[in-house]
Amino acid sequence: MIIPFVDRPRVGYFSMEIALAPEIPTYSGGLGVLAGDTLRSAADLRLPIVGVTLVHRKGYFRQEIDAEGRQVEHPAPWDPARYAEPLEAKIVVRIAERNVWIGGWLYVVHSHLGGQVPVILLDTDVPENSQGDREITHYLYGGDQTYRLKQEIVLGVGGLRMLLALGLQVRNYHMNEGHSALLAMELMRRFHLFDRRRADEPSYNLPGVRALCSFTTHTPIEAGHDRFDWALARELLGGYMDVDDLKKVAGQEQLNMTRLALNLSEYVNGVARRHAETSQRMFPGYRVRAVTNGVHPRTWTAPSFAALYDRHLPGWCNEPMLLVRIDQVPDDEIWGAHLAAKAALIERVKAGCGVVLNPELPIVALARRMTAYKRPDLLFSSIERLRAIARRHPFQIVLAGKAHPRDMAGKQMIENLHRHLRALVGAVPAAFVPNYDMRVALDLVTGSDIWLNTPQRPLEASGTSGMKASLNGIPQFSVLDGWWIEGCIEGITGWAVGGDVESENHRDAESLYDKLDEVVLPLWHGERTKWIAVMKGAIGKNASYFNSHRMLRHYAMEAYLR
Ligand SMILES: *Cc1c(COP(=O)(O)O)cnc(C)c1O
Predict the structure, then answer these.
(1) Ligand 1 within 6 A of 381 CB?
(2) What is the spatial distance between Cα 407 and Cα 419, in angstroms, rounded to a whole number?
(3) 281 with 319, same domain?
(4) Residue 194: what pLDDT?
């Protein structure tokens, strides 16, 4: 079968999760949204790229909050046939000495400008496979280490073979995080066979593999990197290549996906400048560059702001740098666009959790993956303090976030947050919007007034939700970590929580309260033009730069066209 998109060589963009559309639950959070935004920008810019991921038929999960404020998880199945075309090609990979068949789907990302980007959704739920193997591509981040390694074989090895079977030529393989690093092993194997015909001594053409591969690392936490015991790897990967040879590039103690990707990629980068520095220290001997993340302009801009930009800065969605000219837009039009987006958020909060917010008061929003290092509870370190601040400068709070089903500390946080919100009743109107996904995220990053982020330094690799907020003129108030080190100009684009040193909860909480009380809320309640000046700072100085068009051009220049 001839599929479209075989016209020219493409970049193969491999990611365990890709947020293709709000209604397709094939993503859990920032990594997937970034992958989706990358492909959306590629479609706008007509950059030849092909996405590869798993179909995740059972999705991540849908979050419900029960009466006690606890997270309840529901399956989030979706039907790929409604959104994608079935591929006729099927390929085979060996897993634990068995044949596992992989079929797939062609999903097309359409740009409003006419560009298209193909995405291959790999699917083992085909009649040739046993029941167990049919489930390999069902659950995003579900199951144990064995399940995860099987998924990574399908993504890396299967993905590469599927591209070849479809006749899609790949000029560069981009591993978005280490989950797909087995593609580099597969390339190594292929180069090996090729070389063997010429020499008796088998050797691997590592430079040849490296020249084809790029790797983006996303976490500065050692434990966040994927590893597998060699016993398991030997069992599942038997027959691919000599395990001692693989150990040389993937780690002696464990099969370490980050090591494998680092050793076999010529271009390696972190997702913000500080994160690249942290990664460089973690991995001495490799050169780690920085490509600061960005978000897709059109996806993350409220309709009211998009209309405003269309009027005053036509072409902004494909040339977001034009947003530097935001100063020529009259204040009242910016405020009008903001009020429209805020009304939509207030409507959604009312529908979603019955809380009625006041459009006349500022909304402080915080939406995060609920996990310890993100510290979503820092704001509630002192309920007394929050009440006192609200008496002087009334404000409201909106929260959202999912905890991974096995992250018990994260789930406990959700329960605690609900307790805090109950303690604030009568003093601070507040809501927790369930099921944080792209739709909820869009409401929050367009309709709030102040975007709060309080992670533990230096663990936030980049963070992207504050970039989304800045597209809508919402200043960020955040710990100086990840992208905010590059984006924060105090009082001009937003504000910093604490200083630029290792975090300490108590000190950060004090800084948060002091600034909220003395700077941020008084400014909001004071002269409107001064607040709007900060909104313009967020748009003109940050949204113009921290977008996925700039990011993708950076990858194209440095990684893909090297
Ligand atoms: C943007 C986004 C994220 C990532 O936001 P961070 O600031 O990196 O935490 C996570 N989940 C959803 C649904 C998003 O839209």
Answers:
(1) no
(2) 19
(3) no
(4) 56
Judgement on whether residues 386 and 322 belong to the same structural domain of the protein: yes
42-97 pLDDT tens trace: 999 999 999 999 999 999 999 999 999 999 999 999 999 999 999 999 999 999 99
- How many domains are contained in the chain? 2
CATH number for 40: 3.40.50.2000
Nearest-5° Cα angle at 140, 554 to 60: 100
Pocket test of ligand 1: the residue of 464, 468, 474 to mutate, having most ligand atoms within 8 Å of its CB, is 464
What pLDDT score does 358 carry? 98
Residue 178 contacts residue 257 (beta carbons within 8 Å): yes
* pLDDT at position 562: 81
- Signed CA dihedral, 185, 189, 194, 196: sign only: positive
Q: Which domain holds residue 388?
A: 303-546
Minimum-distance ligand 1 atom for the alpha carbon of 468: 1
Pocket test for ligand 1, best of 296, 465, 470 (most atoms within 8 A of CB): 465
pLDDT in tens, 296-346: 999 999 999 999 999 999 999 999 999 999 999 999 999 999 999 999 999
Mean of pLDDT over the chain: 95
For residue 417 the two structure tokens come to: 């947050």
Residue 464 CA to ligand 1 center (angstroms) comes to 6
| Domain match, 349 and 261 both | no
Residue 368 CB–ligand 1 contact under 6 Å: yes
